[in-house]
Amino acid sequence: MKKPPDAGSCYYNYKGFHSIVLMAEADATYKFLYVDVEAEGGVSDGGTWSNCSLHDVVEENRAGVPQTEPLPNDDQPVPYHVVGDDAFALRTWMMKPFSSRSHVLRERIYSYRLSRSRRVVENAFEILCQKFRCFLTTMHQHPDTINLITMCTCVLHNLILIRYPHAISKVDRKDPDTHDLNPVGWRTDQHLQGLLPLTGHHTQKDAKDQRDYLSH
Description:
Blueprint: E1 21-26, E2 32-38, H1 45-51, H2 53-59, E3 69-70, E4 77-78, E5 82-83, E6 94-95, H3 105-131, H4 143-163, E7 173-174, E8 181-182, H5 205-215
Parallel strand pairs: 5-6
Antiparallel strand pairs: 1-2, 3-4, 7-8
C-alpha cells in the first residue's frame, strides 16, 4: 500500500515497501476458514499469529481440536496440528519444515510433504488476488479502509466458491496416477514470496520429538 501520512516506518516491511499482514487458514476447497488482518505494519506472520484470537484458543486447548490418534498403520497417538512455515514457532500443535540446510533425506522429504499441504492456503490467496486485482497493485486508501476491503473480499471469495464451486482456476492439480502436484504459473508471482525466518524462538523438546517421529 502507499505509505500513510506521518507513518514513519510503522508499515514498512523487509521487502522494501509498505503493507499490512493478512493471515488466513483455508480448507481443501480453497475457502477461508479463519482470517486475521494486522493493520499495524512491521509485524510478521509469526507476530500476527501470536496476537490473534485463534492462537490463544489453540494454546489454551479451547479450539475443539480432535483428540490424538495414531496415523494409518501405526499405534502411536499423534496430535492434530496446524501446518506453518519458518515464520512460526515449533509446537506440538504447530509443525513446520526442518532447516532448508538439512541434507538428511528423511527430513527433506518431510519438509516437502509439509509444504504440499501449505499450498492449499497459497492457492486460496492466489484465487483471491486473481478475482480482486486491487491486491496486485499499490492501494492508496487509509490502512483502516484497506483492512475493511481485505476482510470484505475474503467474505466475497468464500461466497463465490460456495455458489459457484467450479469457479476455481489456475491452481495446482494432483496427478491421479503419480499423486504429484502439477504447479501452475502463479508461483512466480512476487507478491506471494515467503517471509524470512524469524529468530529468537526456542522450540520445545516434545515438539521436536513429534516432528522427528512424523518425518520417520
